[in-house]
Amino acid sequence: FFFPVSSGNPDETVARDIEGNEIKKEDFIKTRKPGTRELVQGPKGDPHYLIISEDGELRPYSLDAVCTHLGCVVPWEAGENQFICHCHGSHYDSTGKVVRGPAPLSLALAHVDVNENGNIVLKTWKEKDFRTDSDPWWK
Ligand code: FES
User: Fold this and answer.
1) Strand (E) positions, 23-139?
2) Each residue's pLDDT tens digit, 16-72
3) pLDDT category of residue 4 using cuts at 50, 70 and 90
4) Of 66, 72, 105, which is best to mutate to test ligand 1, by the most ligand atoms within 8 angstroms of its C-beta?
5) How far, in Å, from the CA of 29 to the mean position of ligand 1?
6) 101 CA distance to ligand 1 centroid (A)?
7) What ipTM was predicted for this assembly?
8) Which residues does the UniProt record annotate as the domain Rieske (predicted)?
9) Spatial distance between the Cα atoms of 115 and 113, rounded to a whole number of angstroms
């Protein structure tokens, strides 16, 4: 369980590692392999996945790891190239879009940005969900 830590802006959360430390973008990228999905503390204290693309860049969105069925944390299964919930078997593709139920909705998105200290921040995603072209259900 993570405690939410506010940056002063309710729409912005400094990402923190399991020990509560802020995460420098440069360090994060340098020390992870392409294709990495790693859990950090994000908005509302929810665990969020930061993603390093195959080209070694940090993706500009994170995924809330809380399953939209009944709230289990969904692990990344690299061999399947999917997030697969072990509680009741829901599948989400590599962008977090639900592809098999019982989960009714895709994993929630947050913007990934960097603050003035070079630390990763997650910001509320208010725009359309690019995976479904619909308004975000998590707003
Ligand atoms: Fe994930 Fe039920 S909590 S499938």
Assistant:
1) 37-41, 47-51, 61-64, 76-77, 82-84, 91-92, 98-100, 109-114, 120-124
2) 998 999 999 999 999 999 999 999 998 888 899 999 999 999 999 999 999 999 999
3) low
4) 72
5) 30
6) 8
7) 0.99
8) 45-121
9) 7
